[in-house]
Amino acid sequence: MLAHTRLSRIGLAVSTAVVLTLSLSPNAQAATGTIRYFDVNSQEFRISNPPDNVCITLQARASSITNETNKTVRLYRNGGCDIFVLDLAPGSTRSRIGGPLSVRVIG
Fold first, then answer.
1. Spatial contact of 52 and 27, defined as CB atoms under 8 Å apart
2. Residue 80 lies in a domain
3. Which of 99, 97, 98, 94 is nearest to 35 (CA)?
4. What is the number of structural domains in the chain?
5. 26 to 21, 22, 74, 88: CA distances (angstroms)
6. Which residues of the chain are modeled with pLDDT < 50?
7. Nearest 5 degrees, angle CA 5-CA 8-CA 10?
8. Which residues pair with 64 in a beta bridge?
9. Bridge partners of 93?
10. Does residue 18 sit in helix, strand or coil?
11. Signal peptide location in the record (predicted)?
12. For residue range 6-16, what is the model confidence (pLDDT) as tens digits?
C-alpha cells in the first residue's frame, strides 16, 4: 500500500509538471526588423522588433511608412487600430496614405 501511495504521488507530481510546462506560453512572438515612418515634417520614427497582434499607437501621423520587418504590418487611421487603411507587406513602403496613427503586426 505504501508503494502504491508513493507511486500515486510521483504520478501526480509528473502530471502537474507536464500541465504547467504546457500551459506556460512562450514569450510573445515578434516581427524581426524595424517599422520606419516619417511625419509631415520628415522627422523619422522607428519601432524595432514589434510584437505580433499588438496595437501600437504611432508617435505622430505617418506621411510615409516602411515595413522593414519579416511580417505584414496592418495600418490604421486612428490610434486604436479600429479604422483599417491597408496591409503593408515586408519590404514595402507607402506614402500619402492618409496619415495612419496605429499599426499591428499580423504576419
1. no
2. yes
3. 94
4. 1
5. 10, 10, 24, 27
6. 12, 16-27
7. 110
8. 38, 95
9. 66
10. helix
11. 1-30
12. 555 655 455 54
User: How far is residue 96 from each of residues 31, 43, 45, 99, measured CA to CA in Å?
Assistant: 24, 15, 16, 7
Mean pLDDT value across the chain: 84
pLDDT for 26 equals 47
The answer to whether position 39 is within a domain reads yes
Q: Is residue 14 in a domain?
A: no
Q: Could you tell me how far CA 11 lies from the centroid of its own chain?
A: 38
Is residue 18 included in any domain, yes or no? Answer: no
Tell me, yes or no, if the pTM score tops 0.85.
no
Side-by-side strand order, sheet with 102-105: 56-57, 102-105, 73-76, 84-88
The residue range of the domain holding 42 is 33-105
User: What CATH number did the domain enclosing 100 receive?
Assistant: 2.60.20.30
